[in-house]
């Protein structure tokens, strides 16, 4: 679909402001350029975050998770985030090499509010730093050091509407195509989907770190 000639397309900030109005006082004062102690408590309680990056080949939003506190508040302007094992595409890291701007969205199970952090990241491989984040004797290959530029909480409306934390909203995995089903079709059967699904639980457990 081509939206370029749509007469109802918004193309400038003035049109947006005319449509939505100005933000309220609470929406403005909640934003600070450092990790306030209240925001620190939220980060340290979060076992999950989404890391957003931008690079010459496009955008990326990548899930990051570990036990609560896995993102370390080194000081009020610095966050440390270990890069755990994944699919080895390293899309986020490739983007950061080209463009250090990042955004993080922190989520705490059962809590409706989320926390947004914007900043600039560096990819570090200092051996002592990597060792700080070792789990079961396995250190991450890299650690992201994020220089914080903006922090604020997001209200709970989105999670209330989505009913994300409600037990009766949970889906049975079998109600969606399995990963093996997807891979077998996309690979034109070069990947055995049944075998992939059979091996996946064990592979996940042995490759978490």
TrEMBL record:
It holds the Pfam family PNPOx_N. Residues 36-155 form the Pyridoxamine 5'-phosphate oxidase N-terminal domain. NCBIfam families: PPOX_FMN_DR2398. It comes from the Bacteria. This is Pyridoxamine 5'-phosphate oxidase N-terminal domain-containing protein. InterPro entries: Pyridox_Oxase_FMN-dep (IPR024029), Pyridox_Oxase_N (IPR011576), Split_barrel_FMN-bd (IPR012349).
